[in-house]
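Thread: "does anyone have the structure for this chain?"

Original post by V.I.:
We have the sequence but no experimental structure in hand. Need at least a predicted one for the grant figures.
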Amino acid sequence: MPPTLSDLQVATSKRFKVILKVLLRVGNHMNGGTRNGGAYGFKLGVLRKIKQSKSVDNKTNLLTFVVQFVEKNYPDAATFVDEFNDAPAASRCTLALP
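Reply from O.Q.:
Generated one for you, tokens below.
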């Protein structure tokens, strides 16, 4: 199946790449000193779990932390969804993820 316009928008989004890089850095920091630290990438299924990862004091989660970090340090990247004009059409698709 050839890539859709939505696929191309996600693959070429510079802002979304910044978000993914921040997530990788945060994950590597959290996993520092373990076999999972120093990773070069992660599976996209991990994105479903970032809201479930809580802080030590249980007052915030990883998603909230990353959003605040990006808004403060990479404000342009915080608007990455604006690059996905065809995302509403793509969101109506059903995918079977492993």
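V.I.: this helps a lot. The chain has a mean pLDDT of 81.
O.Q.: and The helical segments are 5-12, 14-30, 62-73, 87-90.
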